[in-house]
Design brief:
Chains A, B, C, D: Keywords: 4Fe-4S, Glutamine amidotransferase, Glycosyltransferase, Iron, Iron-sulfur, Magnesium, Metal-binding, Purine biosynthesis, Transferase. The structure is a homotetramer. Chain A has two domains: 2-252, Glutamine Phosphoribosylpyrophosphate, subunit 1, domain 1; 271-449, Rossmann fold (3-Layer(aba) Sandwich), CATH 3.40.50. Chain A is of the alpha+beta class. Chain A contains 18 helices and 27 strands. In chain A, a hairpin with a 2-residue loop joins strand 4 and strand 5. At the A-D interface, helix 1, helix 2, helix 3, helix 8 and helix 10 of A face helix 1, helix 2, helix 3, helix 8 and helix 10 of D.
């Protein structure tokens, strides 16, 4: 028997990345740009990818399970002709079997024609809305929130699409960054808390919308600004203009975008993701100093904080763990002893840097603790005299309801045992998390505008008990 | 440059085959049986295939572009666990790009739970119904009639599914053979004209529904009877029972099932397809005799009529054309001269049987006439002294609105030129079609209960001018 | 658990088909023609396919496991540029694992440059020759006889390739039809018995070599003649010319090409394959008449003989069994009862033609008898009053050493039990094989020039005891 | 039109990685271990991968084009049963078309049975040896040196395999690290200069041979030692033992393994690859200091040297460029302007770290200079005030003849223009390479035992003018 190894399993997961582009040149094909944009956003979702483009007021699309570079070959891109379009990458939480029907963009026809819609986020009242619509005789073909949103927009067909979206926003609760194309415009929507990121970029010939600014860079576009919470941005032949939802918007950007999800080269709400992580390292060094010889990171996500820790503490930064850069599933034969080897296939300690050293190992977060335990074990085997674990986010104590795949609370190690117990379980010589105050300092200007629910249990909105998409699958 | 050759292109095409099975044994997996049923119905649709099964009141499904044996591998079948389910094969008329989203069974969730629905036929008022529903804010994700039907059923959720289907039948016009599963039952529905075939079969452990009886044979089931026009058959743990739509049903079975679509080993409405074709050959020999040395068929569809022609005329039957049995697309470099060779790749004249002979060549129908022309040319090159073409169906003069892919009237050769002109164009020494009376004799007991619209223009129901699914694709 | 069904397993199997073409036009690409030629020869081998072409004195090739239409896509064909080349289809007897390295054409470099070689046949002294060469330090990368031949040719590099082939023919024993290209010529070779077929064709612009004439038809070439036993045909810019091996050639063409292997539209040694089968049916009717209502065939190979039987006996020919035309592997769940259903998936009795009838069923041969038994059983279930089995070849009593995959003698039913016992085992009401004299009459002009070893044990050459390729795989 | 982007193209390329394992437990399957070993060596070759295992004295193998994780699926690994075996990853220099026939391990049968052979390196007298053998009538099926070696071994079959290898080493010139299995033993061979690395590892149950020690870590084996130059190591049921070639061995390990090829966590000849790179950074800082604000690396290969530069210079290390970690080919539409964007798809400057800063950018080498130029351009666009390029290897002035794919000398920028000119071309504010003395210090203990031919033109052996494998492809 063999088992499949996925080192990333011990991290929280973003569920989606979205991208949209509108070219002023009607003869230009945006499919390559969307491809590059999605490739830059690949870290936000690896299970399926899709692109929809508009040509002569008709939507053409292709979506499949797999990585962007697998789903889209030259042939597919060549056939996707159109001067505007949207794309989506998705990390599925519900298993392979439903990956295809849940792949986005969702393309639907309604009274006003066709739209393609790509969504990042999670609606907490989707179940109630779905029930209401089912009472009216509506059918659903997926378990995507996007289908709920598309149905609401379709029901409001008496008005234009922007007004329909505004009305929809009055009904839906939760997080959402949406990019939508219909026959003649590209629209971007961000929820009233701005919980999920969405930015606007500009190139000589085109406007771009993307989950992260790194995707703007990938297509040669300049950052214009973030979409505002509650804003509906429309891009068409008249240019760019916006309307706002009728709500007061209380900004509550997901802090975990800074901690782990976003690429370090992205800028969210004016704050460099790299810089915030680097700062976290510095603060961690201040809050939890330790007498040690070297600072190492768990690559790649722990690296900026490790560099920051090194800088403030003066302890030299070294490469201590080498990550095999060839992603893709690997297999091992199942047996307890082999499990250990499984992590080493992906991550190998660099003995010559570690041997005889007192090591500070910086990681971005601890979810279940299983991988951390194995890495500490390897470092000791490789001759580390001491291993001091420093985590650049506070303990994860609560589930997320806004688009992050958090495991069941019983699997969150910090929700179940004390920090000293975690330290013992992991086998580290010491363990410290950054403080809640500390993490807020890393995003200083946004300190009152972030959602820290996973650390504090304080969510930007009421979280109803039944708030979970898993209820959708009825008997 | 290269072009793709498809010899079948010069035939009319069925658009779908459906199959359903309900096993009394809850632990039995029906996926293999559905696979074999679809494999037996493969001639009814080669572009996509799908299977949906029900296990513990949940629907699992897999559908893809491709032949049944390509779409389903051991792995897929193993994962499709459930003791009842439905399957579908589809011939797409709308090109490859939309093949995947139009693949069936259609699986939807609605107020009452999930259903999987497979449809063969065509609704002539689908566009009007869709418009009505779009006015109510309904969205559509495909151009399938099945989605219209599923929405209507969902709107009638106040009653049980059989009553909802009955009410739906009061709204839809056109042809439909449906198989549906929900959480606890298998349902079969045939339109009020019985235009598309649907039969009931029985095995010790299971009931079966299928487009043709050859699929019952494939799973070891015995034929019970045809589903009646307007009948809704329900199979569940209480056994089999039916209700009927409220309409008087005027039976109008598609005559082309006998002429070409159905497999010769199928029995439709008590008439053997093989026998009716064989009869057509006999009648053709009677109506249009010719002094000749041998009778040959255009394989495989013309063979039963050729055998019948031989029997009545006393002219010996011979193999005159050998068909390459390895289906699959082939390529040739594009050039007028090579086009000729293209047909020969699939069909080769058997010189030793033909040389110096006066040949009667029996085929089931002529659509565009291009392939017939090439075959006659080959036979002459192979030394045939004369080639007399006998067609076992009357001239095709009209489009079909009930599920058959007929080309534009301008491409139907018989709708544009006289029979002598066709004969000249094709290069045959004589050409005769069976008479309308003749074709009716081949299905004698059903003579007043068949649709011969493609020959006569007399359709069983009013055909509105806009009756075509191509209108669905809005701007 | 599931098992794979292959209805063809109860037939003898040809092991290869070869094709070569030389165009006078240096700018013409022959890859499409080779593709079409191999497609026409697909029945001779379905496990792997390969094409090698020569452009600017360099050989380019592509070969893979799978059917011709799978192995070669537009892309592959486009890349295979060259005005001459060879192709090969192969039926592997040694299992999937080695299919790839044994795929042909074999492309090798030697003293004189590169050659691509495709072989149909079997060398009975390959093992001895291999041993001799291994003693000289030669390595082998496959278990193909072709590699033995290529090595012998390379060892004779002191002379030109035709002389090298002539010298090679003095060393090898067994059957071989070879097509070879080097940098500037196409060569065809047939063994001194002419055991395996090889024909020469001509098109305005090109010469063609092929295992069967049906492949000439597929590329629009006219038959010129068979390659003679022991002949080495060279085609180059000077035209076509030949030399002969130094042996007296005693022609011994494989009789089974007429019985089953070759396509009915092929002409071998001036005899139409269709005609010889048709004759076999007539002779069988004469030798073993029976009072019956209809004659049917086991499709497709038994059909010509069935038509012949019908003609002579006056008993009408009918379609009695419908074969599913979609080839490809199918799966069933393993269980004794299901085994029966397995054959029916591929072959369904046509009840309306059979019911209440006394049936003569004509088949080309019986190998193990298992499929025949199941078919007879189906016919009886479908209502046949009597089933009389007539076989258009004599009983197969011996193994073939010349390129046909015969099962172990213990599995040859006729080698183990008497004809009445076979009849009883199969469940037929009577069973008769054509006589040895009868089968010779079907190829009258060739009567003294055929190998009937599988029926009579008389082989055209001494068959050494160790004559089998299975010995190659050393420990 | 679209072009394919491969950022790695502007680096030198290793051509192969080899791996072998012998388990004492006859029932243990080593395929998974070989898979993990090759996965760890994937950086040494990405075009094809192969595994050969020995079970019951027979060799089974599978090789294909593609990455290790693509070529080997669970199914393949499950079928590869055997308690010893070898594996190979290959970077092809000769284009896709020949990738499959050149894939290794090479499996051949010869007088003494079967062997599987995997080779890293390049023979400089392969052409002459091939010519000699062709004169004897030997054929070749690939352009691999491995086939030359296998033939030589086969010719020496009068003695045992170790002696045959020893004799072979007397004939071949060039670099080679070989792993070989025959029916009962695993053998490792390193050329008399030890130019290509090969290490021995040990696990409780098994011995392991690998190109790099990181592959030992991947399978849980401990490093034993490097194979010695000229050593032939045999591992069989009697344990491990060696013999030596008859030559005096002058060690000349490839310096570029330390500079770029090997993984940083590997130990070669007792020197940590990471450490040597880190030292190179330190020495570079010493030799070519610069007044700057931050040190960044070109990921991932420049990172250890950048950390070393930072440490010695005291200038803080920062992440300045983010590499998209999803490998795989990407496409862009061809146009000059887009070429720029092409690099950015793989590598994005981290503006927040760079803006307004004087940047030292450390890279391992410059080949053509095109990528460096683009990166410097991006950094300036991202606001870098100055960019000082520091290269941790001396200028590459000469081709490699020992297994490294160096471009034509005309494409080596340093071989054509002066360092100041390179600096200007690239657009950097300053440019410095480490000195030859400096690079030797990074491998101090090995200073007299490295090959620095690509920098100095001093090769460990005479390099004949015709020394190139490209000559193999004859007309």
């Amino acid at each position: 028997m063999s088992i499949t190894i996925d080192l990333e399993q011990d991290h929280l997961h973003e569920e989606c990345g979205v991208f949209g582009i509108y070219s002023k040149n009607k003869d230009f094909n945006v499919a390559y740009d969307i491809f590059h944009g999605l490739y830059a956003l690949q870290h936000r979702g690896q299970e399926s990818a899709g692109i929809a483009v508009v040509k002569d007021r008709k939507i053409h699309f292709h979506k499949q399970k797999g990585l962007v570079s697998t789903v889209f070959q030259k042939e597919n891109l060549k056939q996707l002709k159109g001067s505007m379009g949207v794309g989506h990458v998705r990390y599925s939480t519900t298993g392979n079997s439903s990956a295809l029907q849940n792949a986005q963009p969702l393309v639907v026809n309604y009274k006003k024609g066709s739209i393609a819609l790509a969504h990042n986020g999670n609606l907490i009242n989707a179940y109630s809305l779905r029930t209401l619509m089912e009472d009216k005789g509506i059918i659903f073909q997926s378990t995507n929130d996007s289908e709920v949103i598309a149905n609401l927009v379709a029901q409001m067909h008496g008005t234009n699409i922007e007004e329909a979206l505004k009305a929809t926003m009055n009904l839906i609760k939760g997080s959402y960054a949406l990019v939508i194309v219909n026959k003649d415009k590209l629209i971007g929507v961000r929820d009233i808390y701005g919980n999920r990121p969405l930015v606007i970029g500009k190139r000589e010939d085109a406007y771009v919308l993307a989950s992260e600014s790194c995707a703007l860079d990938a297509v040669g576009a300049e950052m214009v600004r973030d979409v505002e919470p509650g804003e509906i941005v429309t891009i068409d032949e008249k240019g760019i203009h916006s309307i706002f939802s009728s709500y007061d918007c209380k900004k509550a950007v997901c802090i975990f975008e800074y901690v782990y999800f976003a690429r370090p080269d992205s800028i969210i709400e004016g704050i460099s993701v790299y810089h915030s992580r680097y700062q976290a390292g510095k603060i961690l060094a201040q809050e939890s100093p330790v007498d040690a010889d070297i600072v190492i990171s768990v690559p790649d996500s722990g690296t900026p904080a490790a560099i920051g820790y090194s800088k403030f503490s003066g302890i030299p930064y070294e490469l201590g763990l080498i990550k095999n850069k060839y992603v893709g599933r690997t297999f091992i034969e199942a047996s307890q002893k082999k499990r250990e080897a499984a992590v080493r296939i992906k991550l190998n300690p660099l003995r010559s840097a570690i041997e005889g050293k007192r090591v500070v190992m910086v990681d971005d977060s601890i979810v279940r603790g299983t991988t951390s335990k194995q890495i500490v074990c390897f470092l000791k085997q490789a001759g580390a005299k001491e291993v001091h674990l420093r985590i650049s986010s506070p303990p994860i104590l609560n589930s997320c309801y806004f688009g992050i795949d958090t495991p069941d609370r019983r699997q969150l190690i910090a929700a179940n045992v004390s920090i000293p117990q975690i330290c013992e379980e992991i086998g580290a010589d010491s363990l410290a998390y950054i403080s809640e105050e500390g993490i807020l300092k890393t995003v200083e200007n946004l300190r009152h505008c972030v959602c820290t629910g996973c650390f504090t249990g304080n969510y930007p909105m009421e979280v109803p008990k039944e708030a979970t998409k898993y209820l959708f699958e009825k008997q």
